[in-house]
């Protein structure tokens, strides 16, 4: 149990340090583009919602920025 908690902590620290390095080297999570093919795929007869993907992209960028600030 303690080993798992320690492992998860180290994993989060590693990911955060990678993100800090990426952002310092001009990576901008706001500029991530979702490929058009994702909007062309149908799932059980429904098309993927463009607004949902845009909101997801914004949430992703926000979380990346939060992680890089730690």
Notable traits:
mainly alpha; two-stranded antiparallel sheet; 70 residues; 2 strands
Explained architecture:
This protein is mainly alpha-helical and 70 residues long. The chain has one domain. Helix content is 67%, strand content 6%. It contains three helices and two strands, in the order ααββα. Strands 1-2 form a two-stranded antiparallel ribbon. The protein is flat. The two termini are 25 Å apart. The mean pLDDT is 82.
Overall outline: flat
> Helix/strand-derived class?
mainly alpha
Mean pLDDT: 82
Number of domains: 1
E-strand count: 2
Ranges with pLDDT <50 over ≥5 residues?
A: none
| Biggest sheet layout | 2 strands, antiparallel
Strand coverage percent: 5-15%
Q: What is the share of helical residues?
A: 55-70%
**How many individual helices?**
3
Helix and strand succession?
HHEEH
Instruction: Give the neighbour order of strands across the main sheet.
Output: 1-2
Distance between the termini: 25 Å
- Specify Rg, calculated over alpha carbons: 16 Å
């Amino acid at each position: 149990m303690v080993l798992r908690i320690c492992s998860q902590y180290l994993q989060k620290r590693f990911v955060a340090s990678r993100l800090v390095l990426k952002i310092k080297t001009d990576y901008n999570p706001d500029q991530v583009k979702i490929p058009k093919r994702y909007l062309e795929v149908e799932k059980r007869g429904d098309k993927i919602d463009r607004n949902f993907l845009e909101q997801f992209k914004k949430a992703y960028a926000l979380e990346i920025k939060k992680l890089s600030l730690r």
